[in-house]
Amino acid sequence: MSRAPEHSAEFASERRRMVEHDLKGRGIKAPRVLTAFETVPRHRFVPEEFRCQSYDDHPITIGHGQTISQPYMVALMTQMLRLQGNERVLEIGTGSGYQTAVLAELAREVYTVERIAELSRRAGDTLDALGYENVHFRIGDGTLGWPEESPFDRILATAGAPKVPQPLLDQIAEGGWLVIPVGDAYSQTLVKAEKLKGMIVESRSTACVFVKLIGKEGWRAGE
Q1: Which CATH number covers residue 195?
Q2: Is 205 a residue of the active site?
Q3: By 3-state DSSP, what share of the chain in percent is helix, strand and coil, each rounded to 5?
């Protein structure tokens, strides 16, 4: 894994407050996850006009109808991945790049797919500026995954789907799993799909609300 070499002290107290109140205070316990959230400067991924809200526990618009998810939800989904440091992770929906940076702190390699080219380029510029070297970018339909680089130890989707896309299930490594919000356009539930002896075992947990996962195996644009 490759961490950002150095972050300024700017917003350091806000990051600590976020971790103590919004993460630890709501049940996020994984030490490596908490350390990643203390490290990654969320304000660098937020548009300038909303920077004062960077460490508040709510989503923030980033343009193109997309958002940077609330810190608690990013932490919860990251904790569900149970990353140890040697994994190859596929992220569906690069967005701002904040979740990408958190994953890059915790995994060996991160492969991230974004359908909106401007968001992918902007996230790439931010991650490059912060010194991350273990992130690989693709612009395209995230519901199809990244078959050329599969299988992946973990897959994380950062948008809600009407069902779990079959291509993503096909790209889970044996013993690995996928975390994805599944439901209708207005509310979803976090689904964990684990591959055990070639079979997919699904479990459901927390209710959530995400933007739509647009693509061939997700929602159609305009629906």
Answers
A1: 3.40.50.150
A2: no
A3: 35, 30, 35
Spatial neighbors of 56 by CB under 8 A, at least 6 apart, are: none
Secondary structure element (H or E) that encloses residue 77, with its range: helix 71-81
Residue 180: both structure tokens together: 């994805």
Task: Give the active site residue among 69, 96, 150, 205.
Answer: 69
pTM for the structure as a whole: 0.94
Let me know: does 148 contact 126? Beta carbons within 8 Å. no
Residue 5 belongs to a domain: no
Flag whether 201 is in a domain: yes
Measured distance CA(92)–CA(157) in Å, rounded: 4
Segment 172-213, tens digit of pLDDT: 999 999 999 999 989 999 999 999 999 999 999 999 999 999
Q: Which helix (H) or strand (E) holds 16?
A: helix 12-17
Question: Which range marks the domain in which residue 118 is found?
Answer: 12-208
* Domain count along the chain: 1
At 72, list the tokens.
């608690």
In a domain, 173, yes or no: yes
User: What is the SS3 assignment for 123?
Assistant: helix
Q: H/E element holding 129?
A: helix 117-129
